[in-house]
Amino acid sequence: MEKPIYRFLHLVFALGTLHLLVLGGLEVQRFFHTQSEIRAAVQQVQALEKSVAALTGEVDSAQTPVFREAMARRMGYVQKDEVLYPKSALNPSTGR
């Protein structure tokens, strides 16, 4: 006949084993979740690097005199000897 203490020890061993299996499963789940977060972060970094490259290109093009002149002209600035005519004065329907 088995002693009652052995039943208790078998129960403790079974519960400990179950606890280990549950913790192992949680760790595996956390590992896969972390891997998916890493993949998402890498994709976000790549997208941001493309954005930085595009913005760097825009900044580099903004350093050229041609670009600066084009931007100034869009804002309505003219050079010293130029005259700015309103768009209505350039309308071909008025005959000018």
Which keywords apply here?
single chain, 96 residues, mainly alpha, 72% helix, 0% strand
Explain what this protein looks like in three dimensions.
This protein has one domain. It has helices spanning 4-62, 65-74. It is an all-alpha fold and 96 residues long. It comes from Meiothermus granaticius NBRC 107808. This is Septum formation initiator. Pfam families: DivIC.
Q: How do the strands and helices of this protein lay out in sequence?
A:
Layout: H1 4-62, H2 65-74
Pfam families: DivIC
InterPro entries: FtsL/DivIC
Protein name: Septum formation initiator
Provide a compact summary of the structure.
It holds the Pfam family DivIC. The chain has 96 residues and is mainly alpha-helical.
**Unreliable stretches, pLDDT < 50, 5 or more residues?**
none
Helix content: over 70%
Task: Supply the helix-strand structural class.
Answer: mainly alpha
Counted by DSSP, the helix tally is 2
Taken from the alpha-carbon principal axes, the silhouette is rod-shaped
Q: Tally of extended strands? A: 0
> Whole-number average pLDDT?
87
Classify the beta-strand content into a percent band: under 5%
